Amino acid sequence: MHEIERHRVILSEVEARPIVTVAHLADVLGASEATVRRDISFLDKQKKLRRVRGGAEAINPPSDVSLLGRPYSVSQTINMDIKRCIAKAAVDLLSDNMSIMISGGTTTAAMSEFMRGLKLQVLTNSFSIADQLIKKSKCSVTVPSGKIHREQNIILSPFPDDISNHTYADVLFIGAYGINSHGVMETDPQIVQAVMKLINRADQRVLLVDSTKFQNRSSMIICPLSQIDIVITDDGIDNKSKEVIKAAGCRLIIVEQQKQ
């Protein structure tokens, strides 16, 4: 990522939450921590942010705090060709009149493109998925009540009892920040809570992750792999990760990366 683009993303991150760590920015940018520290130092001298121990904060900290993790707009620029192939494989599991739930994310959002010819009952907390399906499909669409988090393009309810507690579906589709033998991981406790509400409310649970997600780590666990029925990923997956998935009893679907 070019220096100017890194600076734009860093400023967007510090404007979205009270403080951001060097480690978080390195993950979002795909850059080294040394590079991030240099960028923070430069922007501090430009008086565009305030350098603090281990990270940076906004000159005028936000009153409305964003979710942890990459902004949706940044995730949309990463591996989208692969994500579309994974999404298509997920939609290939569906047929008319099924009821499904889709958790927000850029890989799951890519499913909407391939759902246009299907008649489905859809519950989703993704503002992007709901918008696309309403405009360009025959699906019946339901969204939960709650706050729209613009940076993640997701609707999250602060209340323990919402429509997800009164819904049951044939299939639940989720994405993840990371995946390993400990389970399916996310970065923000609110997202973890939202997915956990849905995880036992479907006959089948399908995880959509590109192969880079097998390298990511987080302390936030949504569920063990044994609760996932199907994992769809690309052919960049390593043999160790394949064995972890199979040992958990999951069906593994591997899509081929499109050749340029």
Automatic annotation (TrEMBL):
<dbReference type="GO" id="GO:0003700">
    <property type="term" value="F:DNA-binding transcription factor activity"/>
</dbReference>
<dbReference type="InterPro" id="IPR001034">
    <property type="entry name" value="DeoR_HTH"/>
</dbReference>
<dbReference type="Pfam" id="PF08220">
    <property type="entry name" value="HTH_DeoR"/>
</dbReference>
<protein>
    <submittedName>
        <fullName>DeoR family transcriptional regulator</fullName>
    </submittedName>
</protein>
<dbReference type="GO" id="GO:0003677">
    <property type="term" value="F:DNA binding"/>
</dbReference>
<keyword id="KW-0238">DNA-binding</keyword>
<keyword id="KW-0804">Transcription</keyword>
<dbReference type="InterPro" id="IPR014036">
    <property type="entry name" value="DeoR-like_C"/>
</dbReference>
<dbReference type="InterPro" id="IPR018356">
    <property type="entry name" value="Tscrpt_reg_HTH_DeoR_CS"/>
</dbReference>
<dbReference type="Pfam" id="PF00455">
    <property type="entry name" value="DeoRC"/>
</dbReference>
<dbReference type="InterPro" id="IPR050313">
    <property type="entry name" value="Carb_Metab_HTH_regulators"/>
</dbReference>
<dbReference type="InterPro" id="IPR036390">
    <property type="entry name" value="WH_DNA-bd_sf"/>
</dbReference>
<dbReference type="InterPro" id="IPR037171">
    <property type="entry name" value="NagB/RpiA_transferase-like"/>
</dbReference>
<keyword id="KW-0805">Transcription regulation</keyword>
<feature type="domain" description="HTH deoR-type">
    <location>
        <begin position="3"/>
        <end position="58"/>
    </location>
</feature>
